[in-house]
Amino acid sequence: MEKLGIEKTSSSYTTPGSRACLLDLLCTETPLWGCQGDLYLLGPQQRLNKFLSESGNTICADCASPDPKWVSLNLGAVICIKCSGVHRSLGVHVSKVLSVKLDQWTHEQVNSLIDLGGNSTVNMKYEACTPGNIKKPNPDSSVHERIDFIRRKYQLQQFSRCDQLITPCPFPAGYSKCTQKAQSFSVISPPSPSCLQNSKLYDKQATKTRIGNAFRNSWVRKEFENKSCRKKAALTNLQAGMVEFVGLIKVNIVRGMNLAIRDMLTSDPYVIISLGQQSVKTRFIRSNLNPIWNECLMLSIPDDVPPLKVLVYDKDTFKSDDFMGEGEIDIQPLLSTARANEKSGMANSMPLDNALVKNSLIKLVDGKVKQDITLRLQKVETGELHIELECVPLTQ
Ligand SMILES: [Zn+2]
């Protein structure tokens, strides 16, 4: 999870782990934290909490809900859970959402966030030219109002300063490809009226850039490679953003055991998980029937709480990927337990006393409701997956 945040959205960070590098980085780029020895007394989470308590960051950048607990790492915005669902639906190439509580933050990620200046700076940039007739969402706004505003604000950048929106046109007169760099990755801006004269060319170029982003982020299934599927995927993401979410589920794909052979002697397995309209996948591991991914994926839970679907595939370069089994997990008990836990405000060490979890593997660890699952894969000769689930109800 944390690797995705830094490595894929930024190219300006040094190798993590070096104390000297970190000191240099903090001293030069974040004078706020100074160079005193006590810098190292603060862990990333404490530094993040301090940042969140600063003026502007105590309310959602998009709808002003108090005490937001989510962050768009690449945009630098501190946002509430409702807006975070919309951000996530736009795709990681537009907004890479991390949880303040669920994700393990690194110093590099906190530095990256601090460098973007916090909500006040972000809004000065992305809302500088907001037309008078555009109303910003409030904490009670509908999901449709949020989608409309957030999409126009960050993806289309319709409210940014005009001088930032207009970039030199690389095409002959009459054509215009209006792209803009936002931090370290590309965001497609809508075509200006002159662009529309050759919207075909624009579409072609824009799509090309979009594919690049998708591949860099490795979050899009191989089958989305064909054009119609990509369009469908974009639409699906937007539809996902229109669904009301009741919580989040963090899925740690720990490992696979005795997976099926799909190449000569072995397989290159990866896992896709989907919940309702959303779908994310792990990296593939080469030539391994007992792979260890230990990869955390996060999905929003739609209010109809569909089952979590799990698919395993063998990665192939020259032909379509081979099926290696599937499974389904009912997440309703986990969600119910998480809700009950939140309502009762249990102490971290208290055992769960809930009819729903009796004789199940749902447990309370450091105040977090988790479930360990060994999933026997179906429609395949062999294979199991070890998966850890953690559920967070909407209120966090
Ligand atoms: Zn919000």
TrEMBL record:
GO molecular function: GTPase activator activity; phospholipid binding; zinc ion binding
Presence of the UniProt keyword Hydrolase in the record: no
Keyword list, A-Z: GTPase activation, Metal-binding, Zinc, Zinc-finger
Keyword Zinc-finger part of the UniProt annotation: yes
Residue ranges annotated for the Arf-GAP domain, each copy included: 45-159
Domain C2: 230-344
Name of one Pfam family that matches: C2
Protein name: ADP-ribosylation factor GTPase-activating protein AGD11
Lineage: Eukaryota, Viridiplantae, Streptophyta, Embryophyta, Tracheophyta
